[in-house]
Amino acid sequence: MDAKGQNLKIALQRKGRLADGSLQLLRAVGLDFDYHEGKLFSPCANFPLDLLFLRDDDIPEYVQDQVTDLGIVGLNVTQERGAEVAQLDCLGFGACILSIAVPRKGTLRSIYDLGGKRIATSHPKILARFLEEKGITAKVIEISGSVEITPSLDVADAICDLVSTGSTLRMNDLEPVEVVLRSEAVLIANPASLLDDRKKELVDRLRIRIQGNIRARRTKYIMMNAPESALQEIRGILPGMKSPTIVPLAEKGMIAIHSAVPEEFFWDVIEKLKRAGASDILVVPVEKMVI
Ligand code: PRT
Ligand code: ZN
């Protein structure tokens, strides 16, 4: 325990798709803790933080009720549970899309064909809200698992389920026709914990580290050689960082340019740089990035 008071507490998924990503993130931001499968509680050795391992569905309520101050959970779960929590950061893992899907060989082609039809889902609240916004009256059937088999059992006409690779839909002869929610793991907090000065300071310290890690994962550091005459054009191509580093080379008229590039623009940028005259392009991962 922290000398000045109680440790901050964070709830993580004990077992499942977000468990590894959550542990990896906390380790990557320098937290030192013991973990083995089946463990329910683990204090950090080098930060006043206790880890609690729970079922993901329970995490929003535990955070809302201040059993823990923080939690890492899918955006789909926090929205479905409707708990009163603050959503702090998107964490860049556990990405999936809550989609409406229909049988591939059938008459239903879009969500506007679903009036009066049955839709099976494990996300009934999110789906009901979505249908209401779109003005569609359909019957929502709540199913806790294996949603994808309900059309073939004639339990439902369509489904609303999470999709990542899409192979589950394909195997069940279903095709997605609508995105209901784009989800990923998010950091959530109890609002009262954020009003407590000491806890808020610890949360902020943790968030600076987490944001630095997310930014670094989304960034590549790029180094290249180019003729000095190409500098203006190359500067125009490089998005992101305020100013690239420019170093003269032994060969007259040649320079080396170093810059961080957001991963989303990466291939686009490389192609443009080559066309602008850059050569010997080296790309290295960024481990941490605090700005
Ligand atoms: O035991 P506990 O309650 O903690 O876990 P759980 O079984 O309820 O959840 P788990 O571990 O399956 O998922 C946890 C979170 O991972 C979800 O709430 C999402 O935020 C996220 N996530 C990311 C996914 C997927 N991708 C995903 N593909 N959750 C579920 N799926 C399922 C989907 O329901 C479908 O059955 O995977 C299948 C589809 O996958 P593809 O690759 O075939 O498209
Ligand atoms: Zn669950």
List the helices and strands and how they pair.
Elements: E1 8-13, H1 19-28, E2 41-43, E3 49-54, H2 59-64, E4 70-74, H3 75-81, E5 86-90, E6 96-103, E7 118-121, H4 124-134, E8 139-142, E9 158-163, H5 167-171, E10 174-183, E11 185-189, H6 197-217, E12 219-227, H7 231-237, E13 245-248, E14 254-262, H8 266-276, E15 279-285
Parallel strand pairs: 1-3, 1-4, 7-8, 7-9
Antiparallel strand pairs: 2-3, 4-11, 5-11, 6-9, 6-10, 12-14, 12-15, 13-14
Bound molecules: phosphoribosyl ATP and zinc ion (ZN).
In short:
The protein has 291 residues and is of the alpha/beta class.
3D structure, described in words:
The chain is of the alpha/beta class and 291 residues long. It is 27% helix and 31% strand. It has eight helices and 15 strands. The chain has helices spanning 19-28, 59-64, 75-81, 124-134, 167-171, 197-217, 231-237, 266-276; strands at residues 8-13, 41-43, 49-54, 70-74, 86-90, 96-103, 118-121, 139-142, 158-163, 174-183, 185-189, 219-227, 245-248, 254-262, 279-285. The strands form three sheets. The chain has a six-stranded mixed beta sheet with strand order 2-3-1-4-11-5. Strands 8-7-9-6-10 form a five-stranded mixed beta sheet. Helix 4 links the parallel strand 7 (118-121) and strand 8 (139-142). The longest helix is centred in the C-terminal third of the chain and has 21 residues, at 197-217. The protein is flat and about 75 Å long. The protein starts with 7 loop residues before the first strand and ends in a 6-residue tail after the last strand.
